[in-house]
Records
---
Amino acid sequence: MKNNPFEFKYPDDINPNDVIDLFVPVFGEYYSVPVSGHTFINGARGSGKSMMFRFMKPDCQVLVDNQGIRLNEPREISDINYFGIYIPIKKGHLNKTDIQLNNKHGEALLNEHFMVINFSLSIFKELSEVGFIDNYDNRRALANFHNLTFVKFLKYSGYIENKIIDENNPIKETFESIIDTLRDISSEFQHGYLKKLIGATEPIPYNGALLLYSDFLFEILTRIRKLPFMPTKPIYLLIDDADELSETQRKILNSWVSLRTTNEVSLKISTQLKYKIFSTINGSRIDTPHDYSEVNVNDIYTTKKDLYYKRVKEIVEKRLIKYDYKITDPEIFFPGDEEQKKKIEELKEKYISEQIALGKSDNQAYDYAYRYAEPDFIKNLGGNRYTYSYAGFKQLVNISSGIVREFIDFASEMYVGELSKADGNEFDVISASVQDHEIKKYSRKKMESEFDKFKKEADNKADMDKLRNLIMGMGGLFQKIIVSNASERRVFSIALNDEPDQELTRIIDLGIQHGYLQKSMIGNKYGTGKARLYILNRILSPHFGLDPTSFAGYKFMDASVLKISLENPNKFISALIKDIDGAVDDGQISMFNETNESYVF
């Protein structure tokens, strides 16, 4: 039996050859990231940022040319176009509440010291794992770097290091010796100082070493660049999930961005849409394009949907090829429900004939059929609407809403489901019944158990309740519209006539951060400018019984009306559907979930 081609692995756990085989630049703007300059890469969890950083590490870059094309033979590390060093920001690791001194100047210095220690540890750990050529010249150069440069800048920072590295010491051991020194400094700071702050009512003086970015880390990195086994190109610090830094630490990172050191060191900073602070520790603001460039990954789905479809198709093709599947066309591997497709096509043909008989042009008749056939098919199912099938590659791509990780996750569950159904026999496709069963289950999990997990972890649980109400209100409204007689029934977005207040903005932002909503802009209905557009994540389509294939439909309303949903989603729906032709106000939101029945074998 073949392996699951959609099994998820953390990017850092994937060996470089597999990264090259599987990597697809999901967002078109990827090619603007590996160029000199500070860059913020913003996108929801699972949108491909960490995989991009994995591809940018040296062990992958030696396998490809500067255009990302695989080479027949690996090139030397000294020949790559930049040297990427991965620095993950793990939740709660750097964001220490202990380092708070009532906003006094020392708070910023201590936080920067703590960040520099941890960044330095990550940097030298990464360096220790790179396969540099371990000859005498390189050993001697690195030993001299330690003895003459590293030790000197530690001394300038207030730490005395007496260790001398022999010029015959292997490269890996020298890097590990540097790591040991940094760990000593970290331990001295955390155990010798931070522990004293616990329970203290007044700030406690700090008399230890102080490692700062401009005085220590940047200087060290510029010297590392000059080592003979390094490329004479910029070092890129690939800082992943920077939203996990505290507010003070984000301002410190912004201060590093403001230094504009991009010819030697560029900061590539990924965020999960929660960063939101672009001032430095001194109160000035970093701005694009002078200080940094910005890539918003989620824009690809709201503005370049066809490109996203092609990217996912390429990702799936690569996985099926790598795992030796006979069928490598994703549209065949994930077939739709043929009986359902046939009935919808018959309905389209009927509508086209009727419209042409009414004197409409072929294009007008086709547009009418495209707009109404799918929602009318759902509507005509009546009380059996839960039988509507979400199977088919195109449907699944739409449902993933621009988040590649979502597609990989539910495709993996579909593979496991088909494996169970096959009872040990080989299979070449994932059946429509398994796809439909698993995507409905996945959608339900997204709205129920996963949401409950987010709420449990949240600092403000009341806000999570309001977010749930907002989602229920939006999904419930769109559900009523799709089975109404409205002229546009495939509605998935809400456009605001005016600006939301602070509370509504906070809840919407929370929904965006957790991946339940996406945002964009659209021309307002007065033709005088842009309106804010908030899109329900299509992963919830099976949960609410919506058609995920269209971007055309959106509902304009005042922000005050949308705000009603935070407390009472049914009241919000009732306030709006009275003006929608044929919409039924039954005072409830029905969940469009499959029953607990097994697969249809």
---
Amino acid sequence: MTGREGHREDSERDERYQELVELAPDGILIHDGGRIVFANASAVRLAGATHRAQLVGLPIDTFLDPPYLKAVQTQLTDSVSPAGPAPPVRDTFHRLDGSEVEVEVRAIAFMDHGRPSAHLVIRDITERLAMEQAAHQVEEHLQQTHQMEAAGALAGGVAHEVNNMMQVVLGFSHFLLGDVRLPEECLGDVREIIRAADRAAVVTRQLLAFSRRAIHRPKVVDLGAAVRSTEPMVRLLLGEGRRLVVVADVAPRVLVDPGQFEQVVINLALNARDAMPADGTLTITMVETELPGDIAAAGGVAIPAGRYATLLVRDTGAGMDAATQAQIFEPFFTTKPVGHGTGLGLAATHGILTQNNGYITVASAPGQGATFTVYLPVLPDADMVERRGVPPRTGANAAQAGATVLVVDDESAVRAIAARSLEHGGFRVLQAPDGVDALELVDRHGPPQLVLTDLMMPGIGGAELARRLKERWPALPIIFMSGFSTAELRLQGAIGSEAGLIQKPFSPGRLVAAVAAVLARVDRRGPAIE
């Protein structure tokens, strides 16, 4: 090969190298330890320039100036034997217009006309970081969802057990209160026990609301009227000094459990009261809103597009930072001092709204108060017909007096309370500790007029007992006792759509009224047992 041919090949190789460098998707800058001597087209675009002359000659620190770069420069340029490639480093690239871009920089040493120089390959990682952030948020949401599901299951289980204990406390307290032998000076003590048990029952209802296992009786409601009906109670809760403003001129109709909606308003009002000074103002506003969709609600879910009845609860309290807002709907999270809150109010509110197909958001900042916004879907005109059930009777008539009720519960104290309450109500009672004994009793004595059974029992549970009894006597009325809601039990397949349910804890009077009402309906239809 002649010298001329070798020179031509070197020239072609240099041209190919220059072309590859120029067309590289990553920015490439070459500097001599201080100033830029070369920039490819991608580096020009990355810097926000229009021509490479705007970069060449500028100090490398104009664009990249972290401490690591100085170390790399020293390593690469202070020796005639340059080191190997440095590992990639994440950095911020300063553009000519003052904006910044997140980049990854890889430094490569090479000899440029006998002079050690640094070849920097600069990759814009803005899109990659956004994807990583989105993936991280999805992972966090999944973890939070799993945690909330686990916490919900635990909360529901705890509430169920506590309801059993409260059933014993309330039942025997009512018996004591009705005992004429109880000294007059002891009546106040018993009433205090009942009040304490009722407060504990409120906590279990909040646990059930959070776990979405609470009793759920939706009906068509004029939400404007519902808001106005809570006004006297909210004023009482706020106390003297704090001001309440209610604006509820619209009357959207929604499908919601009225009692649960009232609890939502009360929980939000209590939360606002505790956040406000003595002269604060709480504003409750009812409006209708057309949402475009994809608005993020508590729990990270997106609110679907549509028309919503929108309740805004705004306070003039201390407000919250972003970290607090991210946690306020979690169970047992509270910023209140020990003994001044359970941390269940907002978690229960979130659970209630989820159960009623609703959503909640919060907007706040330190020193600027907080606004909680509740969204409930407005019913179309075609869905305005409300179903009304037959109101239950409150006592046993002559035909029901002496009717036999089979009480089945593995908790002996709960079973004793139910039996004693029904006996006082004029019913004849048979008792069984589980499904096996209940079936043996029925085989010996024949079917009762009604079966009152707990659902969660070892061996043959309430649902299986009901199934076996219904196979023999399809019209036999059965009432389940449980701390869970009808909707939750049906969702789990524990009971059918026709099953009756009384939620624990119940008072003796409420149990008697529930049994009498079921027997009254059977009496109107004809005998249940042939």
---
Amino acid sequence: MLRNTLKRACGFGAALRVLCMPWLVLLARIWFGQVVFVHQIMTIAESLHGALFSGGLRVPSALDAALHSVVPLLLTMGLLTRPVALVLLIETIADSHGALAVGAQGAKLALLSWLIVSGAGGMSLDNLLARGLSWIPFRPIRVTREIYLWLERYLGPLLQFVIRVGLAASLVNVVLPAGSWLQKAMLGAAATSLVHPVWCAAALALALALGCATRFAALFIAVMVPVAGIAMSTDDRLAVLLLLSLLVVAGGGMLSLDWLLQRWTGSALQEDDSAPEDLPHVVVVGGGFGGVAAARGLRNARCRVTLIDQRNHHLFQPLLYQVATAALSPAEIATPIRSLFRRQRNVQVRLGQVTGVDAAAREVQVGAARVKFDYLVLATGAHHSYFGKDSWAPFAPGLKSIEDATAVRSRLLRAFEEAESVASETERAAWLTFVIVGGGPTGIELAGAIAELARHGMAEEYRMIDPAVARVILLQSGPRILPTFTATLSSAAERSLQALGVEVRLDTRVQGVDSEGVDIGGQRIAARTVLWAAGVAASPAAQWLNQTTDPSGRLAVAADLSVPDLQWIYAIGDTASSLGWGGAVVPGLAPAAKQQGRYVAGVIAASLTGRRPPPPFRYRHFGSLATIGRQAAVAEIGKLCVWGEPAWWFWGATHIAFLVGGRNRAIVILDWLWAYLTYRRSTRLITGDTRDKMMD
């Protein structure tokens, strides 16, 4: 029990370091930048004062002026941080005239040393450029990169030790004199305590020196600094607080009792060592939301994880329709799977297509190879369902992959090109008619995006046609669109679509699709572009395991998401049919897959350590979102229903937050801002050879 508690505490410390360290180092850089800038302003002011009242003007040297003008900008951006910090360190030591650096001055030197050894952190230009430094064929740059890595690996722990000992010595030096600021503060805070504050301070100093409960000790001192009443300037106080905050976030380092405790609990695998081969082997099939969540959930487990996917990228499917309608490029919503796990050393990523599972032999068949497993997680997703009419697939493609999206984009854009070229008005009308089958979120998002593209995104670009006259028709077999939303939101979405010029046809079943159009109940719609958003079917995972399925082909799973009668085999996401939503089937949504992935990781981790398994899976539904077009969306958050512009902003913020990778978030924001201001789409590229397919 004690070991598990300590393990969770160490895991919390690791998470704190990963989440907070980039922000804290950014704050330190900005603070140093403003200190240098203010120092330069004060120097100039003193020079002017001397010129006016003393008759002499001291002009700073060109080097000094350049240093203090450029340094704040470089530190704020995180560019050349280590050399800049080294120059500032040398300058600070020179200004002290060899005096022993203690107190706030020592804190500033320690902070600069931290920047020299550890670098600018994750939120910096240095971090972005570092990825390419090792590939530059200029040897001095590569040597510099190696020196940086050496500093971080070998001098980092030593620096943390020196900082801890220095803070402990300063604490003892301040506390021992009677009537000191810390003694008074602690006496006031512990008036009813039987523990004398001097002994408390001594215990804190000893804890810092040994690296025992470093985070707690540093946090306690940091809390006392602002209220202690010690005579320090604001900048000096901030320097001490920043240094203590770094210890709170980073911990004691390798030269500490905390690190030995972390090693004993086995809470984290070393980044330099891969998981041993004799550890239990977990195979995760599928690199979607569920599979990635399951693999990440096992980051602290004593096991080997192999993630297998037929593609090398993790796709953010909710924005796939924006690639299809030329709003985003594929790279902005896809991230290489290997990059997601580059720091999780117990994960191996394997590119390949799984074609079967031998439950008895505990093997997964990947092409001609076989991969043994101790635990298996099937997160294989879903594909388009044409309800037994698979012959419609060539004429009505759906959206499930990057290849689908780029093919649809080419179809859409080529339709306008063909309409510009044909002579017959009948043919032109067919090319300018777009039919979307299915009134769920994907269907209405496609319809709204195509209508906006036609009416606003191509203005004044064609000479023979007016793209704004294009017809966009949405076919829904039921009595209303968005059937999983409330009736109020369905009506709001329908009004928004109609405002964009989309024709919404309800209670309409498709009876046939070919290259010339769509048949709906005795009526023919001539359309050269038909898109399918009517349904999905699960992958053949159930066939691999000889299990029964629901009508959508999903595996029925137990309360812990395991496959019945098959030990240590689990199914999640679109692969599974789970009744974990208050007795109802869990919806095939990205949040549900992520929750299931994390849950299964917890079940496996509990099994590996012999702990009690978690309670049955319960899906937490935070809401449903769908966007129709500019400033038009619907959002259902619990019992709260929002539509129009507020829902549109909420939809955008939510999708940005859940995108993988800071680079993708930044580029998507810029693309959306550009499209919002100019009504132009940034990726209107026709790729591949779709002409023959469309003309067939």
